[in-house]
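Team,

Forwarding the record for the chain on the shared tracking sheet. I've put the sequence and predicted structure together so nobody has to dig through attachments.
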Amino acid sequence: MSAVPARWAARAATAVLAAAVSSACAASAPPATATGPAQVETELTRFVPFANDTVFSYETYIEDTNEHGLAVFEFKRPRPELAELSIAGQVRKRYYFEPAGVRSGQGGYLLKSPLTLAAQWSGDDGQVRVTATNQSVDVPAGKFSGCLQTVEQAQLGAATRKTTTVFCPGVGITVLEIEAEDGATSVLQRLRLKAFGPRFSGS
């Protein structure tokens, strides 16, 4: 099997979250109060709150290897306009909250106003389009409604990649699915939200 699609799938997960890495830690820890700079809710932050000291765990699945795993990510908000995504204590991605949208450190937008059906913008690797504005999803973390779905189409040489992301109000990313193809070779990678909540400080 060609290695190109697998690398593309991993890069897509990195672009949206950071990387689909396995971890022994789950986010279903005892509740704690997350502190940080005050955040004002807007149309954008409803779908990507990225609250300070919040931990997300995702069930991961890679189709071609039938591999199941767990990915754990933590968000910190050093200041209201900046969110940092960390894995195992290392910052792997930065997001900037601007009036126009939520922009990644690579320059593309994760979300951009207006969040209406068929709205489009430039993502990190390709063109992003809103494909649903009232989606319902059922993931291990629960059932969510009123969600926003986007699809990013990207191409690198002969390889293509489609990234479908579902953002739910007050939660953030609940589903991330990456489909990559290179000729007759294809790979599917999926992340589904397992648990989320404030980081347990242990004190």
